[in-house]
Amino acid sequence: MKLGFKQISKWLHLWLGLTSGIVVVIVSLTGAIYVFHEEIEDALHPWRFVEAQNRAFVPPSQLIDTAKTYVAGEKPTGLTYGNSEGAAAVGFMSIKKGETSFSVVFMNPYTGAFLKKEEPLGKGKFDFFHFVMNGHRALWLPYKIGRPIVGVATLLFLVLLITGMVMWWPKKWNKKSLKRALLIKRNANRKRLTFDLHNVLGFYSLIFACVFAVTGLIWSFEWFGDSVYFLTSGGESRVEHVHPHSDASKAHLQKNDSMPAIDRAWYQTLATEANPQWVYMTPVLHEEDDSFEITVGQIDGKFYKQNEYFYDRYSLEPLRVKGDRYAEAGFADRLSMMNYDIHTGAVLGLPGKILAFLLSLIIASSPISGFLLWKNKRGKR
Questions:
Q1: Taking Cα atoms as reference points, which of 300, 315, 322, 324 lies closest to residue 268?
Q2: What is the dihedral of CA 84, 284, 269, 80, to 10 degrees?
Q3: Which of 51, 143, 230, 259 is the most exposed place for a label (fewest CB within 10 A)?
Q4: 379, HSE (Cβ side, Cα atoms, 13 Å)
Q5: What 3-state class would DSSP assign to 295?
Q6: Which long-range contacts link 349-353 to residues 24+ away (Cβ below 8 Å)?
Q7: How many CA atoms lie within 13 A of 303 on its CB side?
Q8: Contact 120, 132 (CB under 8 A)
Q9: Which helix (H) or strand (E) holds 154?
Q10: Domain definitions of the chain by residue range
Q11: pLDDT per residue over 110-128, tens digit each?
């Protein structure tokens, strides 16, 4: 590589690293902690599980009626069924005087029996993983301020990865150069060891760090997500995800039916989805043209392989939108569905999460080792 290009890359790498380093450390460490939040919460909260039974789950209306008795005056905002050993949960979220309150009522999905009311947020209670996520997404600042800072720092981090690759690139591709570039000299002095940790580990984590950065930026900036969709779809524009509307002129069809509409929508969905691993639905509709939405996950512990079902609230007629079935979605839409699971490593199951955890720690160490290298170099002057 030409010397001028490498010098420019070196200059950019230094100053962009010093500018964004503290943000990268915080985002990486909080990300590493959050990777296993589901496993940790499941271990600490036994009421999230029930004994599997050879019988059908109770319908949504029964769970909603039970949950309402434990959260007076609030309307449910979400209802979740788990797998055969998972508890059902009805969530209630409200915002009063600027304070968000979120409660969850857990029930046995086979009997509808109450298990536990959980209030992790609001009312002066501290939730550790919510605290971690606030740091990951917004540095514990107000989201309007913190999220753009994290987004810009992640963009700078992408540039750092590119310039770091330029600086890592050996001048000569011989055995000696490759050994220096690919192996950590464990018996070296402190300065050489710091250099190897920054240089070698940075190279091995490069591809994964790019994946973490890109999947994070899709949430940070709409224009970035649109650009990724455009590239992965072969030039198509990303269509905003909208819910189909119910036909209010058919409201009279609902009056003569003894079964609640949400239960009928539930049973219609189960007639199509024989073995759902988790189900999420909107239990209460607010506008007269709202439709029932039921999301069915086909893999336990993962979000990407899911199907969305929409129903007219009056006629229960199935409604369709683009990309609502995973099997029918194009590559770009599937990639969008996989974004969270890729970002957390869950797409590869437990091994992927372990890999994401270790790589996040390596990424967090890079700004620290880079700062030490810069400090050591300045100390020689």
A1: 315
A2: -20
A3: 51
A4: 7
A5: strand
A6: 349/301, 353/35, 353/36
A7: 13
A8: no
A9: helix 143-168
A10: 3-36+136-236+345-379
A11: 999 999 998 765 556 778 9
